[in-house]
Specification:
Helices cover about 30% and strands about 25% of the residues. The chain has about 375 residues and is of the alpha+beta class. Strand 13 and strand 14 (about 225) form a beta hairpin. The longest helix has 20 residues, at about 160-175.
Length: about 375
């Protein structure tokens, strides 16, 4: 369960972390009124409990005069599969640099890890190999030296390193206080004078079983799956709301009829394949399922570990249709080797993934085994 952004920021601000000035609005008129207190340029954000909102069409940087129309379009719509009931209207803060920072559970060790990258923002996954990871012992908690180690690995200068210590401590306090799976600040803006300001915060906490909301299915294992076409052909097992929605759009335009939207939330697997097994079994229930496409573009998740769990889940479920897998990000080289050795169909790019799905659906063929 992910807290809405404005709630996560309220909790971070209470601990002293700087966040942009903003207002929550539940109507377009209220959003417009709030904007005039924030300057000529503002940011309007759909409040939905997921990441990937920028690529999912839920975040706009705009002039004050355009806010009402943008809010009107967002409110009542779906962003990344979630209904938008409110928007956050914030001041626009120019910055010299966007940094990625997170405290997460390391599924291999069951302990916390600090992650830091000097290239944050919506395209952080493109720089996954540059994200430093420093384990945090439960005996010490987060200390300054953890930040120093991560900053040194990223080749951050001294001024930036010092500015990162307080946001890291606030993140760890939120992580422990709420027993979270993930606390992520992305981007952490470095403004003039190397002042750190959290432009977006995600707090993901374990949640109780949640009832179905329309076609949105939330399993006890924590993944989100929304049925799009019960007579569809392609089952999706993906992560990242923005990337998942992009794949849905591409397949729909190609006439390949995706069955579902899925965000498997790989960061919360914690070394267990249960979530993947649940998703695969759910997809197997659809009568026209022709193939299952796995698309994981990860900046946080260790793809070698994820692939190990995926193969375990496939062995347990024995899907009746071909499984096509594309992975990009941390540990991808090892992951691709495991995929190749398993006999699954492997895609080397997003375009190739779409082509392999097309060939499988239209020709009923497992296609050629590609070398990653």
């Amino acid at each position: 369960m992910q807290l809405l952004e404005h709630e996560a920021k309220r909790r971070a601000r209470a601990l002293g972390l700087a966040v942009p000035k903003g207002y929550i609005a539940m109507s377009a008129v209220a959003a417009a009124m709030a904007a005039f207190d924030l300057g000529d340029t503002v940011v309007v954000k759909a409040q939905v409990p997921t990441g990937g909102r920028s690529k999912g069409g839920g975040v706009f940087v705009t002039s004050t005069h355009e806010v009402e129309a943008i809010a009107q379009g967002l409110l009542g719509s779906l962003v990344c599969g979630y209904p938008v009931n409110s928007v956050l209207v914030e001041e626009y803060v120019p910055s010299d640099r966007e940094i990625y920072m997170a405290i997460a559970i390391d599924p291999r060790r069951g302990s916390a890890v600090l992650m830091l990258g000097l290239q944050g923002g919506v395209d952080v996954n493109r720089h996954a190999e540059k994200v430093a990871r420093v384990d945090i012992s439960v005996l010490t908690g987060l200390r300054d030296w953890h930040v120093w180690q991560a900053a040194e690995a990223c080749e951050a200068d001294a001024e930036t390193t010092n500015a990162l210590i307080f946001p890291a401590k606030v993140s760890y306090e939120l992580f422990t206080r709420h027993r979270a799976d993930l606390v992520e600040i992305n981007p952490l803006l470095m403004t003039k004078g190397s002042q750190a300001l959290a432009a977006d915060i995600r707090i993901v906490v374990p949640g109780p079983d949640e009832a179905n909301d329309g076609n949105l299915s939330r399993t006890r294992d924590g993944f989100d799956l929304m049925e799009l076409d019960p007579q569809g052909l392609v089952g999706l097992l993906t992560t990242g709301a923005g990337a998942s929605m992009l794949l849905v759009d591409v397949l729909t335009e190609a006439g390949l009829r995706p069955i579902n939207f899925c965000d498997i939330r790989t960061g919360g697997l914690r070394g267990s394949s249960a979530r993947l097994v649940a998703a695969l079994r759910q997809l197997e229930r659809y009568p026209n399922l022709a193939c299952i496409a796995v698309n994981v573009f990860a900046g946080i998740t260790d793809l070698a570990e994820f692939t190990k769990l995926l193969l375990s889940a496939i062995d347990e479920c024995s899907p009746s249709v071909p499984v096509i897998v594309r992975v990009e990000g941390l540990g991808a080289e090892i992951a691709r080797k495991r995929i190749r050795e398993s006999g699954l169909i492997s895609a080397r790019s997003f375009d190739e993934l779409e082509k392999l799905i097309h060939d499988t659906v239209n020709h009923g063929s497992r296609g050629e085994m590609f070398t990653c």
